[in-house]
Specification:
This protein is an alpha/beta fold. Helices cover 45% and strands 17% of the residues. It has one domain: NAD(P)-binding Rossmann-like Domain (Rossmann fold), CATH 3.40.50.720. Strands 3-2-1-4-5-6-7 form a seven-stranded parallel β-sheet, with helices on both faces. It is globular and about 50 Å long. The relative contact order is 0.14. Bound molecules: NADP nicotinamide-adenine-dinucleotide phosphate.
Amino acid sequence: MKYALVTGGSRGIGRATSIKLAAMGYSILVNYKSNETEAQKTAELVTAQGTAAELLKFDVSSKEEVDRVLGGWMEANQEKTIEVLVNNAGIRQDGLLMWMTDEQWKNVLGSSLDGFFYVTRLIVSGMLTKKYGRIVNVVSLSGLKGLPGQVNYSAAKAGVIGGTKALAQEVARRGVTVNAVAPGFIRTDMTHDLKEDELKKLIPMQRFGEAEEVADVIAFLASDKASYITGEVVSINGGLYS
Ligand code: NAP
């Protein structure tokens, strides 16, 4: 059985991605941190596509939880192959750097950058053995351009972009591709508190994007059609920044 692991699969871009990958025939490991109700909803939407869904609750920023829960699943399911990994889990905790707390820094770097490291380290060896794999990291326009009030988030996402490019070169010979998608403003819980009416005036397309529009690009990069693309960052931002 071929599996795709989507971190932060319970809501937003992760949910939309889980559904698209299920439609491609993958069974989905839906990771989440705490929102079991929403994770369960994603699982139902996945099974409606005709594949299996399993919930895996762990905090990607915790090495202990990643190794115990994800490592435990891998140990118990050695006949199952994780062919696709989408490192999507992430949070923002904005504030100007001069007032940023240690917690704001650690939480944001932990969920995006440490999470990418802990999860990918576990998964990539199986892909190398099988000589096939697709890793897609969800970064952000903030990590390309830098956004004021988001030094922690910009640094975390820029870190993942560097990691994407470096890892792509480490594993290319073994048929494993590593790419990133960099969304601009996408309508999800993460952007719920933003003033969409004001911000959309800055976007050439004059609207926020939808989670499904990001998921379509992730699904393409996760497919065998994207076999000669690696180390790339694809922006999805309605023309806001290129
Ligand atoms: P969202 O709707 O807030 O969903 C966040 C997801 O990440 C949830 O499934 C959440 O799980 C999970 N999560 C958060 N911290 C986690 C952790 N430490 N361990 C495991 N899971 C964790 O956010 P979204 O907008 O879909 O964002 C998804 C990704 O896109 C993030 O990496 C974000 O930085 C990136 N992004 C978003 C936008 C945007 O405009 N929305 C733009 C650029 C980039 P629970 O449900 O359990 O809390």
